[in-house]
Amino acid sequence: MLKFTKSKIEAFIQKVDFKKGNGLVPAIVQDASTNKVLMQAYMNEEALRLTLASGKTHFWSRTKGRIWMKGEESGHYSLVQNAFLDCDNDAILFKVQQVGPVCHTGEESCFFKPIETEDNQAVDAKMLERLFEVIKERIQNPSEKSYVSRLTSKGEDAVLQKIGEEAVEVILAAKTNNPDETIYEAADEIFHILVMFAQKGIPLNSIFEELDRRHKNKTQK
């Protein structure tokens, strides 16, 4: 989640053409990991400023006549990763990591009514990026309902203990030759490693960079 500086916010806002839409501009929200378009709404200048300052999307409701933050009731926030102006400076694209379904219907995207049915997109490693952003948000904005918030509030040792416990569970599951159980326990282990990285402020991408460095060292010899 990015929170932009005041100077960057003002510089960006000065470029936006609010006049063409009588004070409003369309705002398109796109998943930063999958590139799937999640929703479209409208922003006025204040909503845009709040979005860039907080790192969570805010919009202007034309029906309620007020600013609202995505997730203010559901907790399904859109965590801003970047913002792009279109060629005419009168529409904005936000790349986000989405916490929970974006649509009030419970769908992953508000655009779920195609003319022609498409195959569902396969889940891949980009899921880790989305999960990591949610974990960071739960640490930054603790909630009693959140397992991550409760665990990290107990300190580093509690998180490290869970990593050790889950490592043992992975080994035991693998020894039983039960693929489903092994997958389940491995997912638990990876999850708690992500929690540890978020707690310590270590970027998730640093893992990929290290693996890439090792791969290049091995293959270039």
Describe the 3D structure:
- This protein has 221 residues and is of the alpha+beta class.
- It has 2 domains: 93 residues, Ubiquitin-like (UB roll) (Roll); 93 residues, MazG-like (Helix Hairpins, Orthogonal Bundle).
- The chain is 44% helix and 17% strand.
- The protein is built from 7 helices and 6 strands; from the N terminus they run αββαββββααααα.
- A 4-stranded mixed sheet has the order 2-1-6-5. Strands 3-4 form a two-stranded antiparallel sheet.
- A hairpin with a 5-residue loop joins strand 1 and strand 2.
- Helix 3 crosses helix 6 and helix 5 packs antiparallel against helix 6.
- The protein is elongated.
- It starts with 5 loop residues before the first helix and ends with a helix.
- 19% of the residues are buried.
Gyration radius (Cα, Å) is 20 Å
Q: Which CATH class of the largest domain?
A: Alpha Beta
Order of helices and strands: HEEHEEEEHHHHH
The level of helicity is 40-55%
| Poorly predicted parts | none
Mean pLDDT: 93
Distance from first to last alpha carbon = 39 Å
Number of strands: 6
- How large a portion of the residues is in β-strands, by DSSP E? 15-25%
* CATH architecture assignment of the largest domain: Roll
Q: Remind me, CATH topology of the largest domain?
A: Ubiquitin-like (UB roll)
Number of domains: 2
Strand order within the widest sheet?
A: 2-1-6-5
Helix/strand structural class? alpha+beta
Shape from CA axes? elongated
**For this structure, what is the CATH homologous superfamily of the largest domain?**
Phosphoribosyl-AMP cyclohydrolase
Number of helices: 7
Largest sheet: 4 strands, mixed
